[in-house]
Amino acid sequence: MPETALSPVAEGTSPASTLEELARELGVRKVTVLTEEILRDGSGALATSVTRAAAAAVVRNPWAGSAVSTDLAPETERLAPVLAKILTDRLTEALGGAGEIEAFGKSAVVGLKGEVEHAAALIHTPFFGNLVREFLEGTSILSFSDDRAEPGNTIAVPMWHKEAASTRSHYQTLTLSLSDAPHPNEIVVVAAASTGSRPHPRIGDRTTDRPVTAEILEGIL
Amino acid sequence: MNIRKIVTLSEEILTEGGRPVTPGARVAIAVAVVENPWAGHGFVEDLTAGIDATASDLGALLTPKVIEALGAPVEAYGKAAIVGIEGEVEHGSALIHTLKFGDHYRKAASATTLLPAVEKRAPAGTVFDIPMKHITDATIRSHHQSVEVRVADAPHPGEILIALAASAQGRPQERLAPLSTEQ
């Protein structure tokens, strides 16, 4: 087996035979998938329902309690690609394939014994972002949130269009919470996706906006 | 029946108490957020018409959703009704406490026991726990468990949130002596 950043085991031992075993070896405690199919909103039904999904992995923080001088790269390169694979597998399964996905986003929430930088390490490098983009067949940069929190905190995952980030109709947020995560020494890593826009989008787009500057306040303030 | 949205949640637990859980323990829920059939009608004495119009359809809708989200045979199950603050708890109970609702799930899961339930009236975003017990013998202690649910924007005051829950196994790392050892 060639040596790669993904190599999960020491030389001389056999590799994990399934993604589930690999996840367990990397310290993943659980994987949660939320889906939300919106059929109507406000006073009207949607012509086509929109389904949004979030996949969240709860993983042991390999840097909990470590010094701020610790190099985060080695563990990031080991963990982040596997998390990207696990989470995007769940998203494509939940939403009917990458071809159905129009918008995407990501989040990471670190437990109280970690730094926000630890959460950032797992989602803000190519070892996570590039793989999520590739698996979900997008080209945009991924919108994100990161946070440090107690278990059960609300996690708002922002999403935008996977190929045209400035498409206003697709700015949307999916909210989830995990009752028992993150523990103080854990990190929750989330990838989210949507099959469409917000319900009833009707706030125009940058192509239809007239020029707006602070001059519009003249005479009002 | 006026459904605003359908939510599913599935959870696979790979480790618990610092030890592996093999295979991963799976739990799932399926939720429908529906308009309260009795909202705005004052005190309705006879709930039969609203039950007939809604309960069976909800059971038929949610049953395949929760089973698909679980992705494994159901061993323990439960249900929930969370009523928005303009309704009565009795409205939620009406939608889940008839055979019209529950028999869809019982049949699909080859189950025989009553579904454990939670009913409450609450604002949107409330946290509730769905109790689950074994599908053919509610005394099987290994399968007593709960799953927590929260839907950030439901139920609205005039809505009811109806849910089914499923577990593919007992609790992760379950190791309590069975009830029979104490009898």
Explain how this protein is built.
- Chain A is of the alpha+beta class and 221 residues long.
- Chain A has a single domain (19-199), classed as 60s Ribosomal Protein L30, Chain: A.
- Chain A has four helices and seven strands.
- Chain A has helices spanning 19-25, 73-95, 116-123, 126-135; strands at residues 28-41, 44-60, 103-110, 143-148, 155-161, 172-176, 186-194.
- In chain A, helix 2 runs parallel beside helix 4.
- The longest helix of chain A is centred in the middle third of the chain and has 23 residues, at 73-95.
- By secondary structure, chain B is α+β, with helices and mostly antiparallel strands.
- Chain B has one domain (3-182): BB2672 (60s Ribosomal Protein L30, Chain: A, 2-Layer Sandwich), CATH 3.30.1330.110.
- Chain B has three helices and seven strands; from the N terminus they run ββαβααββββ.
- Chain B has helices at 48-70, 89-96, 99-108; strands at 3-16, 19-35, 76-83, 117-121, 127-134, 145-150, 159-167.
- In chain B, a hairpin with a 2-residue loop joins strand 1 and strand 2 (19-35).
- Chain B starts with a strand and ends in a 16-residue tail after the last strand.
- The mean pLDDT of chain B is 97.
- The A-B interface holds A 20, 23-24, 27-41, 152, 154, 175-177, 179 and B 2-16, 20, 22-24, 69, 127, 148, 150, 152-153.
What is the topological layout?
The complex is a heterodimer of chains A (221) and B (183).
Chain A: H1 19-25, E1 28-41, E2 44-60, H2 73-95, E3 103-110, H3 116-123, H4 126-135, E4 143-148, E5 155-161, E6 172-176, E7 186-194
Parallel strand pairs in A: 3-4
Antiparallel strand pairs in A: 1-2, 2-7, 3-5, 3-7, 5-6
Helix pairs in contact in A: 2-4
Chain B: E1 3-16, E2 19-35, H1 48-70, E3 76-83, H2 89-96, H3 99-108, E4 117-121, E5 127-134, E6 145-150, E7 159-167
Parallel strand pairs in B: 3-4
Antiparallel strand pairs in B: 1-2, 2-7, 3-5, 3-7, 5-6
Helix pairs in contact in B: 1-3
